């Protein structure tokens, strides 16, 4: 259940942090609260919107909004972004009890959109488009229709342990070729030492490799989807993964294993791709290596390229919301207003790794990287660069969640060498074409 | 999921009213007695129809539907009649069938172990003093009384690579234990199931043993049988119907295996996938993929497979008993 598989990168740490007890509570399916969309009180000129979200600081931000917007009152409910939260929201929306606005991951947005559980609010949202980074806006607009407003971005960069890199004579990798060379050098010194960790339940690292390569598994056209898991760019990603696996350069510790932090903190795995929201988590669980970390841009496929991937949080407008215009206005305030961002990005009131999905992030990059863990002077520059370089080719398709589950079922096999990365892509190509067609969706193979 | 509860609700048929010479209209009394009987049964019948029959009918209905989309596939889907389309997909779904084979293989090992141990324990309890038996019986039943989720959480900590006392003890002796390799995963899971189920099965067998007339043992003793011989030749045949019964419930419970793997999955999602058991496949399809129609079709197929296996087991075991 754990997203149960569509457990994307951002969920993995959260589920790792959740205790077994909390997760077992999720198993008990305590879903279906009865709080729903309030009926429109447009006649009175005053509306009340239900809003479900999980991030720290949202309740304070909502209080700030309510004090300045007497005619659009927001009623906030704390939710979770893990599998249980997704299930709860989906069940509520299906039953017609959904809140007006909910915060969820961009991968979940396509699932909700394919069920008709979110509203197309393009007519209210288009005016805000230029405020946001184009990759973030695209994540909120699968297939070209906007279903919500991006409220958080998590662009990926590369983090490594400086002293260990020095100790083993490694070069900070600017390309994947260099990273693999580093991994091989490390492995030659001690086969237990690994360059990175790919968890056996979580193919999100491979998604990131594809995204960064400029591949897109799904591409929306006016004639339907072009499905292309085996494009030249995707094969570049497969090649990198295959070398990492075949040369035994990866550790494979699960994010649900409470011992995962020791993988890095104990000095056996030296580096990771990571992003803004994860760093505050790491800074609390790396007692030994605290202060020994540095960040740089993710390794590139060719020297001089500038590309990375990112997760996004969306404030989506759900089906049945009677006041989509007001809801969109509120979501935009949450994603871009400096008063809101001051609350949500500040570690004291919100979540220190909450990073805005804006076109201009200059006001929010200074404190996003925990200085104690990463005492380097140019972190703001690297984070800004990552945010600006998120590849805009990537798109999520309507059956992405199911596809991701299917891919995750093969993932342990790929990591232990029982299936090649290319075979994985070929399998998913056939699976996805078949799945979309069986639902009556136009889909053609891209290559 | 522990071994199923035995429904006691079905046999609450009304006792016929005592014959009375003072009442000339006995037929009427019987009718009103029947009405009272139905009235007593009404809550059960309503519950049975509402939370059992209706969802089953709806699931069968839903299993023959399908969500069709158009264009890029965003927006509310249309529900169309799919006939047996979902079932065709289920039959081609290798992951689903291998999950069924997986739980059957677990059952083939686990059920004989549970029933064998429960039988031995019940036989031992039968020969010790009544007071002693009472304490042991209660003690053995404790794991069954612990809810499945809690029981699995207890074992989750015992299996955890970080928190487990076994792992740290092994480390002390210079070895390592991995509870979730491709082989040990099955033992780790099976161990939890045995631990949970043994007490309940023991109680049933023990109760059946107490119903055996003591004269039989005495007769056997006079014929020169020792305690072991009595156990094997007199007691075991006497509790055979209970073994068949608990065996059948164990098969059903095993095909519906869910709680234990989904919780243990937290320790090693690579070893226990989201489609490890058929119920997990159904759960994933429902709550993660939101594909209710397909989940309904898988549920119907699982129910049929379970029914067939339970029937075959029952026929096989009762025919052998008759022979």
Q: Give the tally of structural domains of chain A.
A: 2
| Biggest pleated sheet of chain B | 2 strands, antiparallel
Question: Per CATH, what is the topology of the largest domain in chain A?
Answer: D-Maltodextrin-Binding Protein, domain 2
Mean pLDDT of chain B: 86
The amount of helix of chain A comes to: 40-55%
Taken from the alpha-carbon principal axes, the silhouette of chain B is globular
Structure write-up:
The complex is a heterodimer of chains A (about 450) and B (about 325). Chain A has about 450 residues and is an alpha/beta fold. Chain A has two domains: about 10-155 and about 310-375, 3-Layer(aba) Sandwich (D-Maltodextrin-Binding Protein, domain 2), CATH 3.40.190.10; about 155-310 and about 395-445, 3-Layer(aba) Sandwich (D-Maltodextrin-Binding Protein, domain 2), CATH 3.40.190.10. Chain A is built from 18 helices and twelve strands. In chain A, helix 17 runs antiparallel to helix 18. Mean pLDDT of chain A is about 90; it is low at about 1-45. Chain B has about 325 residues and is mainly α. Chain B has a single domain (about 85-320), classed as MetI-like (MetI-like fold, Orthogonal Bundle). In chain B, about 70% of the residues lie in helices and about 0% in strands. A two-stranded antiparallel sheet of chain B has the order 1-2. The longest helix of chain B has about 35 residues, at about 25-60. Chain B is globular, with a radius of gyration of 25 Å. At the A-B interface, helix 2, helix 4, helix 5 and helix 17 of A face strand 1, helix 5, helix 10 and helix 11 of B.
Characteristic terms for this protein:
heterodimer; A: 447 residues; alpha/beta; D-Maltodextrin-Binding Protein, domain 2; 7-stranded mixed β-sheet; 3-stranded mixed β-sheet; 18 helices; 12 strands; disordered N terminus; B: 323 residues; mainly alpha; MetI-like fold; two-stranded antiparallel sheet; 2 strands; 71% helix
